[in-house]
Prior knowledge:
Layout: E1 2-20, E2 26-49, E3 52-56, H1 68-80, E4 85-92, H2 103-118, H3 125-132, H4 139-144, E5 148-152, E6 156-159, E7 167-172, H5 179-185, H6 197-206, H7 209-213, H8 219-224, H9 229-240, E8 247-248, E9 255-259, H10 261-274, E10 279-283
Parallel strand pairs: 3-4
Antiparallel strand pairs: 1-2, 2-4, 2-5, 5-6, 7-9, 7-10, 8-9
Amino acid sequence: MIKKIKSNAKINIGLNIKGKLSNGYHLLDMVMAPINLYDEIEINFTGDPGPLIIKTNREDIPTGKENILYKVYEAFYNKTGISNQNIELYLEKKIPHQAGLGGGSSNGGFFLKELNLYHGNPLDLEEMVDISKGIGADIPFFLVNKTCRINGIGEKVQIVENNLECDILIIKPPFGVSTGKAYNNFSKLENKKDANIEKILVGLKENKLSDVLNNIENHLEQALLIENEDLRSFKNFLDSLKFTYFFMSGSGSAYFSLVEKKNSQEMYSNLKCLLEGCEVYLCSFS
């Protein structure tokens, strides 16, 4: 049995760090929304016992047990007690890597749902969240895959209303950033700016783009800008363009802008010309 699925990216519309647990995990309060930028996954359930075999179009993506897909595979069969099934999986990566767009967690979440479906849904949503939250922080979100307010370490997912009518510009610079560095630097922030999550939620519900834009902040971006000169220079260049606001998604390094549909195609074309060496995408909420 062969199944072909699309595994979408996400953006963070505001991200606040609320604290840190004794195990090192950080407590978050943020809004996440799925967008129509996709990886493609082909899953061949052979029907035989055996391992998961992963192939991909990207040489820099590991295909062994360190891959998030393999971790999900092992966690599912360990939790359910079902004998491991031979699965041949091909991952066509299109979502930028090390971008803060959730590509790896998306792959893991969608694969977990397909594994569960193939075996007759032995796990409910709460059980899937429980086994996946330690594998990829954003997997619980992708199990729901709707605009959500996220709390805890990423496992508390609440669907929220999103009526915002806009397009989304995504810009991935030609470098990645360290998620660990972002969290480590957070303690150095002296005058952090908080996202107003409540006002963002109202703006999403009432289709008020300016209310959303005026209240987005990202603590991880602020933490990275302390020491990362490449990121700081890139952010300064984006700010110098003046024609829209840009915000980092998650732990970066990708930035996004929410723009009116009537202006989006022209902005996209201009950014493609101005940002040579960057990946530029024109997307919408999915």
